[in-house]
Amino acid sequence: MGIWESVRVAFEGLVSNRLRSGLTMLGIIFGVGAVIAAVSMTQGAKAATLAEFERFGTNTLTVRSGQSRHGPVRGGMDSAVSLTESDAEAILRECPTVMATVPEVSGRAQVKAGNENTNTSIVGTTALYPEVQNYTLTEGSFFTDEEVKNRRTVAVLGSEVVGNLFGAGASVVGERIKIGGVTFHVVGQFAEKGHMGPWSRDDQIVVPITSARYRLGVGAGGPGTPRDSVRSIGVEFADISEAEQARIEVESLLRYRHGTAPGAEDDFRVMSAADMIQGAEEANRIMTLLFGSIAAVSLLVGGIGIMNIMLVSVTERTREIGLRKAIGATPRDILLQFLIEAMTLSLTGGAIGVGLGVGVAYGLRTVGLNTAVSVPWVVVAFSFAAFVGIFFGLLPSRKAALLNPIEALRYE
């Protein structure tokens, strides 16, 4: 028999034993489907994470205070008050790759508008905040350098604060709010920004850094700390390709300004969107390999099922094998026939599994989960199913090929 004739005979055998064939293919079907569905979910999560980082801006660094230390006891992150507005000015002035900097102070306060009130984050910063932190406004405008200089009581609200105080979609420019008992005039509203982890970028009110410090007491330096101390400094550079160079420049300058000895621990930390993207990609890669490995176990179990069924088939068809050998079939012909049957089982199961996995991926998308079908992983899963068919079908096929025709014809 030729190859296509062997394939036809193999399909006839599958059809004549539908239940047994279907049960045999289940392991392959679920294994391939699980690989594709699992990888689709991790790839979708990766795409969503990268899109979120893009929204927050990838050409920025954030410099934050480090850990305080009292003898052997360390404080938490940001517990050391080590950054100042003059640091921000120096970074802009002396780092060639840096285009803009924005110092920030922050705290929480009770905010009232009419009969409504909410507890939210108060951020004090400068006029370049929307540019560096990649914010846009849906109405109104951001405050100016002049308003920062003169400690004006003006505020820009995040969309979540607007919803809490005035109702979602309300026009708020011109409204008055009270932050910690001090009246502020609303001059603008940010477009929705979304969450970064558990933190909502929309649950905040941004005011001039001078107003935050001198009118609200937010970020005011305590005993022994500079009056112009800040919690963090946002740094903007031209392109993500300059991220590492910008980091080196900022770290070198701050170590020099803070008098950090060679080999000593920094009293600040520099974070970048590129670092977070790299971390997210690494975590996603690990999850993809983990899910893929777990699903691959199903394929191996399915392969063992194929081998068992093929061994049963060889036993059931011993007389047929003896008859074929008696009329001229070579061991190679017998080996090829049974190997093709095993591969037909695995490839048919693989094709059904691909359809199942893709269907599950698109089904999950309809209920709001981010999924992205990865064509390379579809090819990998299907190819692995073919390999399983060859590997686990080889032993039964070889057993059939080595049968003695005389003993086979005597088999009852």
Could you characterize the architecture of this molecule?
It is a single chain. This protein has 412 residues and is of the alpha+beta class. It has 2 domains: 3-52 and 279-410, no CATH class; 61-237, no CATH class. Helix content is 54%, strand content 20%. It is built from 13 helices and 16 strands. It has helices at 3-16, 18-56, 85-94, 129-132, 145-149, 159-165, 209-214, 243-257, 273-316, 318-326, 331-366, 375-401, 405-410; strands spanning 60-65, 69-70, 73-74, 83-84, 98-113, 116-125, 137-140, 154-157, 176-179, 182-190, 195-196, 199-200, 204-208, 229-230, 232-237, 268-272. The strands form 4 sheets. It has a 6-stranded mixed beta barrel. Strands 2-3 form a two-stranded antiparallel ribbon. Strands 4-14 form a two-stranded antiparallel sheet. It starts with a helix and ends with a helix. The model is unreliable at 70-76 (pLDDT under 50).
Largest sheet: 6 strands, mixed, barrel
The side-by-side strand order for the widest beta sheet comes to 5-6-13-8-10-9
Cα distance spanning the termini = 25 Å
Helix percentage:
40-55%
**How many discrete domains?**
2
Mean pLDDT: 82
Helix and strand run: HHEEEEHEEHEHEHEEEEEHEEHEHHHHH
Poorly predicted tracts of residues? 70-76
Shape: elongated
Total helix count? 13
**Strand-residue proportion:** 15-25%
Number of strands: 16
Secondary-structure-based class equals alpha+beta
Q: Radius of gyration in whole Å, from Cα?
A: 34 Å
